[in-house]
Amino acid sequence: MQIIDKLYDGLSPLYPVERFCDKGSALYIDIETTGLKKETTSIYMIGCGYYRDNGFMTRLFFAEDESEEETVLRLFYEHMRQFTHLFHFNGSKFDIPYLSYKAEKYDIAGMFDDITQIDIYRLCKPLRYLLFPASMRQKAIEDFLGITRDDIYNGGELIEVYKRYEKNNNDEDQRLLVTHNREDVLGMHLIMPILYYLDFKDAPLTYEGYVINKYNDYSGAECEEAIFDYRTTLSFPQSFTAKTESMYLKASSESGHISIRLPLYKGTMKIFFDNYRDYCYIPDEDTAILRSLAVTLPKGSYVKATRENCCQNVSGTFIKQPSNTFTPVLKSAYKDKRKYFRFPESFNKEAAEQFGRELINVFFTMKHR
Predict the structure, then answer these.
(1) Are 272 and 345 contained in the same domain?
(2) Is residue 344 reached through a cis peptide bond, with omega within 30 degrees of 0 on the bond before it?
(3) Strand 339-343 vs strand 311-321: parallel, antiparallel, or unpaired?
(4) How many angstroms separate the Cα of 98 from the Cα of each of 44, 134, 299?
(5) How many domains does the chain have?
(6) Fewer Cβ neighbours under 10 Å: the N or C end of the chain?
(7) d(Cα 255, Cα 290) in Å, to the nearest integer?
């Protein structure tokens, strides 16, 4: 069994760890195993990372063969007890259940009872559709932040390398195993700035105006969009773009400029009235009028209004909105969940800034597709 230490001199937290705990109380961990099924496989390495006054220390507990699993686990447990907060990446799903099972096997009671766990992956989940629509693996976050590795393998690929190492104790095999685990641990320290993007949910925005842009779509049809410009004082590591089916967002980390592109819809929408019992509906005109006015019309030209038809038609240009920021709220049909407002409006600055925040928050409320 080996304990392999490496100090990254001068490295300090890249994100205020104090939001969770004192930096000296934080321990980052990642484990390597010979398979996913905890009942029939074993731990061969537990990597740790923690802050010291002079940098970031990685400590790896490495089993030279499977018989040293218990020793690795007990030494890790003694080391972990010096810390109050345990950081991991999606460890709630794999690392912690695996370690807990092995701790019970070796009569290490309540291994994680006295430590607070911080799952970086779960903290980042609200960023899925804003930044990582394809994948939110740790390496995907590292790529986004411009972090490079020497390690080129994943844990599954290294299982055979470890089995080969057990047989021949080859230095190169050990280097591959150690490099992977160490960089997983170091990577957690390096990706912590991704948490700054969580602040986008309540980003302070200054509305700067809008322009109309004309373009041709893929079929060659002429289209129009409104480009809304905002400025934010929020600091974030990298510029990014994000999109939905009907919105494109671009944010600059250097200038704090945020532009949001929204398509313009031309045609007819409907304003629906809540107090439908006070209205009558005129089928020939597809519109509703107050009952007090309907009595002046010929009998048979109108009927009692319902929720579905108590409306008036509005022609013009429209933009979709997430909520009821701009009124009157317009829809294409009563049961249509999409909401629109007539454009252009004389934008109240406060309402325009609320509109921008609501558009950004769309990414935080999107469901898995």
Answers:
(1) yes
(2) yes
(3) antiparallel
(4) 12, 27, 77
(5) 3
(6) C
(7) 52
Q: Do residues 285 and 344 share a domain?
A: yes
Dist. CA 163–CA 185, nearest whole Å:
22
CATH number of the domain enclosing 163: 3.30.420.10
Q: What is the 3-state secondary structure (H, E, C) of 269-337?
A: EEEECCCHHHEEEEHHHCEEEEHHHHCCCCCCCCEECCCCCCEEEEEEEEEEECCCCCCCCEECCCCCC
Q: 143 CB contacts (<8 Å, ≥6 apart)?
A: none
One domain, residues 158 and 232 = no
Q: Are residues 176 and 49 in the same domain?
A: yes
- 217 and 289, same domain (yes or no): no
- Answer for the pair 73, 64: CB distance below 8 angstroms, yes or no: no
Question: How far is residue 192's CA from residue 348's CA, in Å, rounded to a whole number?
Answer: 37
Give the residue numbers spanning the domain of 228: 203-263
Residues 6+ apart with CB under 8 A from 304: 280, 281
Where a domain ends, among 146, 172, 199? 199
- Taking the CA of residue 243 as centre, how many other CA atoms within 13 Å lie in the half-sphere pointing to its CB? 8
List the structure tokens of 111: 């291994």
Residue 283 sits in the same domain as residue 361: yes
Shared domain check, 332 and 250: no
Instruction: Give the SS3 label for residue 49.
Output: strand
Tens of each residue's pLDDT in the chain, 369 residues: 999 999 999 999 999 999 999 999 999 999 999 999 999 999 999 999 999 999 999 999 999 999 999 999 999 999 999 999 999 999 999 999 999 999 999 999 889 999 999 999 999 999 999 999 999 999 999 999 999 999 888 888 999 999 999 999 999 999 999 999 999 999 999 999 999 999 999 889 999 999 999 988 888 889 999 999 999 999 999 999 999 999 999 999 999 999 999 999 999 999 999 999 999 999 999 999 999 999 899 989 999 999 999 999 999 999 999 999 898 999 999 999 999 999 987 678 898 999 999 999 999 998 754
Rounded-to-integer distance, Cα 164 and Cα 170, Å: 8
Same domain? For 28 and 154 the reply is yes
Domain boundary, last residue among 199, 225, 241: 199
CB neighbour class for 365 (10 Å; exposed up to 12, middle 13-18, buried from 19): exposed
